[in-house]
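2024-03-11 09:14:02 INFO worker-7 job=invfold-0412 stage=load source=structure_tokens
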């Protein structure tokens, strides 16, 4: 059991760190800091994907009783969000990093709302944070607590997890929408309003 926990803790720690870094990106006001943190996030995300794939792959190749097999069984819930992170989040993080790099010649430039809106996109932070959340039951089980043994605990735990995912998703969507609205250019006066002003 200790070996299983030793395998799972680094995976959970990397995903948790990625979720924390992703959550703070839209609040950054400086392009150089945004680019640096985005680089950290890219490294953390790729590391998390690599570690998760290594554990799941090791579980497929093991005889079924090794600690890596038990760790892989615990990470099956995290496979879905980790796959989304590998397919979608990594691409968006790389584009954000490249976009922030366009301001490298002026490192003191304030981060535009467009970049901050891109940093707040749900497909950047949500898969990372959901993956981190999905590793928690595996870590708790590896530490010795059997969550599935008591049906009175399993149901509420699943409900709380689903509500947490919904709250995280709504939060990301609202923040992205708010920053995207700020990034829009000011609306030009309508032709009718301009015509009315000419007649006055």
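2024-03-11 09:14:09 INFO worker-7 stage=emit residues=200
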């Amino acid at each position: 059991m200790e070996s299983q926990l030793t395998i799972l803790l680094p995976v959970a720690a990397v995903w948790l760190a990625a979720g924390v870094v992703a959550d703070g990106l839209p609040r950054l006001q400086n392009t150089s800091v945004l680019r640096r943190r985005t680089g950290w996030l890219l490294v953390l995300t790729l590391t998390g994907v690599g570690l998760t794939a290594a554990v799941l792959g090791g579980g497929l190749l093991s005889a079924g009783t090794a600690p890596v097999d038990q760790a892989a069984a615990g990470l099956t819930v995290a496979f879905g969000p980790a796959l989304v992170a590998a397919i979608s989040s990594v691409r968006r993080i790389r584009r954000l990093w490249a976009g922030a790099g366009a301001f490298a010649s002026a490192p003191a430039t304030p981060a535009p709302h467009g970049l901050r809106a891109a940093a707040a996109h749900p497909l950047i932070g949500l898969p990372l944070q959901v993956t981190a959340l999905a590793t928690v039951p595996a870590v708790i089980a590896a530490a010795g607590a059997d969550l599935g043994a008591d049906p009175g605990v399993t149901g509420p735990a699943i409900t709380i997890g689903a509500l947490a995912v919904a709250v995280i998703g709504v939060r990301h969507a609202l923040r992205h929408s708010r920053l995207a609205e700020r990034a829009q250019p000011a609306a030009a006066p309508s032709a009718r309003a301009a015509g009315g002003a000419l007649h006055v």
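2024-03-11 09:14:09 INFO worker-7 stage=report msg="The longest helix spans residues 151-183."
2024-03-11 09:14:10 INFO worker-7 job finished
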